[in-house]
Amino acid sequence: MAAPVPLRSDFDAEALRGLAKSSRDPAQTRRLLALSVIAAGGLRSEAAEIGGVGLQTVRDWVVAFNADGPDGLIDGKAPGARPRLNADQRDVLKALVDHGPTPAAHGVVRWRLCDLAQILSEDHGVSVSEQTLSRVLRAMGYRKLSARPRHHAQDPDATAVFKKTSPTVWRTSRRLSAASR
To answer: Whose CA is closest to 73, among 57, 55, 93?
Structure first.
């Protein structure tokens, strides 16, 4: 059986308990209390029982504590998956969206997500779903805006005449002014 990983010696059991008392993170507190048992000369199985975990987890805590001190016992945010588009590909996407499509070259008059995904796939070899592309574009500050549809035979002068306009100065109605007399 291999020898247990030794706990770093710059923290004694009392210091670990003091850190656990001042910690605001409950998981870190539990881990520090378990490690204080080891620092006091207790068994790793006792530390595992106090921490509510197995021996392998206690070993992982010791390794993390030895590497980073008390901060190594705080749960960090997972790094997540690598982005599908690198910075250069995002710059190309931004230029495509900013300049808009050329109908003769691209065959469309406005960009759709499927068109942008196809261009990225053909020109840069990156397969991106429409949902991911939408998320990337939103993160870059773009929003899907559509112009109000207008009939091709609509007369702009006729619509201006048809619109209801408010008087420039608000007046009280005759009925209200007569009732107040």
So the answer is: 57
